[in-house]
Amino acid sequence: MIETFVFSSESIFLREEDQENVKQLLDYLKSRNQQIGMVFYDQALMNQVLLEHHLADYLDFSINGEDAGTICNGLVDFLKVELSHQKVNFISNSLEQLAEAKALGFKPIYIAEDCDKETVPCQTFRDFNQFHIGVIENRFEKLM
After folding, report:
1. Are 11 and 38 in contact (CB under 8 A)?
2. With 80 as the cut, is the pLDDT of residue 128 above it?
3. Distance between CA atoms of 21 and 142, rounded to whole angstroms?
4. Backbone angles phi, psi at 79, to 5 degrees
């Protein structure tokens, strides 16, 4: 079962301490033939993130966001079929953006260090390492 993982912006990858865990997660998703994409709002920052950390090879698609903090129509149009099958995860550190994503048919996933301090109506993870473990657990549960 192919799922799509959309990262909400280039800024979600900026924490240096996350870089090794990000690569491990992306390696895992790629090895499972999952589709990986990113929305970017700042071309220069995106190039920095993708090139410095060698993340470009992992992405199946990237879409230029129209307005920071919102989900662009181009992404919704591009993933129309996947959204109709409820197979698109939207990963963000913005609760407002996740609320919009949920309304558009995405499965919202919140990644933030203080995620346990907030009441959030979706899956939450403190960091990419915890998210990676959560993805593996989810796959294992589906097999059972």
Report:
1. no
2. yes
3. 23
4. -105, 25
